[in-house]
Amino acid sequence: MSDREPPRRRVPGPARPGGQRRPGPGARPARRPGAPRPGGSRPLRLGSPRPRLRMVSLALTLVMAAFVVRLLQVQAVDASAYAAKAEQNRYVGRTLAATRGGITDRNGVELATSVDAYDITADPTMFTRAATKVSDAPEQAGALLGPILDQSPDTVARKLRTKNTRYTLLAHRRTPQVWKQIKDLKTTLAAKAETDRSAVNFLAGVLAVPASKRVYPNGDLAAGILGWVNADGKGGGGVEQQLNKELSGKDGKIRYAQSGGRQVPTVGSTETPAVAGSDVELTIDRDIQWAAQNAIAEQVKKSKADRGYVIVQDTRTGEVLAMADSPGFDPNDLSQASAAALGNAALQDAYEPGSTAKVMSMAAVLEENVATPGTHVVVPNRLHRGDRLFQDDVDHATWNLTLNGVLAKSSNIGTILAAGQLGKTQKEANKVLYSYLRKFGIGGYTGLDFPGETRGILAPADKWSTSQQYTIPFGQGVSINAMQAASVYSTIANGGVRVEPTLVRGAKGPDGRFAPVAQPKRTRVVSAKTAKTLAQMLESVVDDEEGTGAKARIPGYRVAGKTGTANRVDPATGKYHGYTSSFAGFAPADKPRITVYCAIQNATRGSYFGGQICGPIYKQVMEFALKTLQIPPTGAGAANLPVSFTP
C-alpha cells in the first residue's frame, strides 16, 4: 500500500438560490448576473415600514401634545377665567324687591298700600335662532305679548333681542291677572309644540319675578298729600317722594343656578333678604279729608273756577287734619291725570292773599300798642297815598269805624291808616310790619319739607315799592301759599304761639316699633293778650250784621273768621286777571281747637267774593270737623265789640 494519501472526494455543497451551488474551495468566482433577458421577470421587493411608523408616531405625539397643552391651559393657566364664564352662564342673579311700607291716616286707616304683582322678564338667549330654529322668534313673541303688556310688539321684540345677557325686563309690576294670561298662553303653546314638531313655543323664555304694586284704596282722596310711585318703584310726588327712603326699605339679592329659564332646586343659592319699608302714619283724618275734598270740589265746579284748596289744622298741635285740592287726580291711574292737577296746589301755588292777611297788620298794631279795638278810625271814600288812589271794595260815604270795625268791614283804607301808625315815618312802619309778617311765617317755608313747596314772595321792607308800602298791609303785593295762610290763623288761635305744621305723626319700622316724629318748633309771635283780642275782633266779622263773614256762622258755636277777595295774578300771563276768594278762621272762638282755611282761584260763575263762596265751605267743613272730633260748644256769650262810633 502506497504512503500517499488517497485523493479527497468532493462533496457537493448546498445549492444556492437560483439553483446554483455555493462554490467550494478553489472554485471560480460566480459571474454577476447580466441584464435581464428579454421576456424575463424582475423580482418584487417590499419597502421598509419603519419610516411610515415614525411619521405616524410623530403625528400622534403632536396631537397628544396639543391636547395636553390645551388641557393645561384650561385646567391650570386659565382655570379661573373659564370657571367664571361657566358660573356666569349657569348662574343668574336678581334683585329681591323690598315691600314698600304703607301709609295710613291718624286712625290707622290705609291710604296707600302694596299688593302682589310681577315683573315680567325674559331670557334673550332662548329667543335666538339657535334656540328656536326660526329667525323671527322675538317678533313672534312680541306680537303675542304686546297687547297683554300694553306695549308695541316692536318694543317687546327689541328687548328680546338684547345681547350678552340672560335677563331682560319686559314690564314692571303687572297684576297677577296679567301674568296668568301669559302663563295660559305659554301652556297652550307648549302643548302644541309637544304634538307638532314644527310648532315653536315662542314664550318659553318668558318668566315672572314676584314684586309689589302700589295701590291707593280711596282713589283720589288725599292724592295731593300722598303723591304716587313711578315705574321704577320710587316716590314721584307728595309723601311718597318726601319719605321714599323710609317707605322703600332695602332691596335684597338672590343668585341661583338655572337651566332652560328655570331655577335648579338641587343646586345651592345665595340670598340676601330684603328689608321691608316702614309704615308711615299721617296726621290727617280720612273722614275730615273727605269732607274738605268734597266741599271744595263742588264749589270749584259750581263757580267754574281754575282751582281751590281747603286746609284743616289742629290749632294746639299744628297737625294738619286735612289738605284738599281741586281738581285732583287718581294716583292709581296717572294716565288720566292732567299735568296741572298733579302735585299739591295748597303748598305749591303762590298767590296774593288779600284781606285775610289784614289780621297780621292788626296783630302788629295791637302788639305795638298803637291802637285798641275801640280806637276810632275815620275811613274816607278814597285815600291818596304815593302815586295811587286807594278805595275799598264797595263805594261808600265816609265811615266812622272802630279798629274792630275796620277788620269787620274789611276796609283797605282803614287798614292802611292803622298800619301807618306803626312808625314815625312810613319806612319805619314798613320795617315793623315786615318783622311781624316774618314771625307769622310769611316769606319762609312752613316746616313741612314738602316736595315742590313754595315759600311765597315777601320782599325786604327797604325794597318795597311806593305801591307795596300801602298794599301789603291789606294783602296785595305779597304772595303766600294756603298752608302759610292757615298757619297765621292757627297762631292766633293758639294764644299767639306759632307751631310749625306737621303732616307726619311717625313711622313703624320692620321691628314693629312706632317712632314718633320730633316735636314741631314753637315760636312766640304775639302775646296771649293780643291773640285773645284778635279772636274777639274776628268774631265781629262773622257775628256782627256789618261783618262780611255772615255765611260762616255755625249755630251754637262762637266762630272767628276773616274774608278775603284779592286781585289775582294769572300764572300764564303774569298780569292781574280774576280774583282769589278766601275765608280763614277758627272755632270755638273763645277756646279754639280747629282752624279751617279755604281759597278759590278765578271763579267765573256767580259771586267771586270770599265771604260768599268760601264762607259756606268754611261752615260745612268746620261743622263736620267739630262733630267728628266731638268738640262741643263752650256755651259762652260773644264779645260783641263795637264796629262803629258816632262822631
Summarize this structure briefly:
With 647 residues, this protein is α+β, with helices and mostly antiparallel strands.
Task: Pick out its properties.
seven-stranded mixed sheet; disordered N terminus; alpha+beta; 647 residues; 21% strand; 32% helix
What topology does this entry show?
Blueprint: H1 50-77, H2 79-90, E1 91-96, E2 103-104, E3 110-122, H3 129-132, H4 137-149, H5 153-160, E4 168-174, H6 176-195, E5 206-215, H7 223-226, E6 228-229, E7 235-237, H8 238-242, H9 244-248, E8 252-259, E9 262-263, E10 270-272, E11 279-282, H10 286-303, E12 307-314, E13 320-326, H11 345-348, H12 358-367, E14 376-379, E15 383-385, E16 388-390, E17 399-402, H13 403-408, H14 412-419, H15 426-439, H16 468-471, H17 482-493, E18 497-499, E19 504-508, E20 514-516, E21 522-524, H18 528-543, E22 560-569, E23 576-587, E24 594-601, H19 610-613, H20 615-628
Parallel strand pairs: 2-11
Antiparallel strand pairs: 1-8, 2-3, 3-4, 3-5, 6-7, 8-9, 8-10, 11-19, 12-13, 12-24, 14-17, 15-16, 18-21, 19-20, 22-23, 23-24
Helix pairs in contact: 4-5, 10-20, 12-15, 12-18
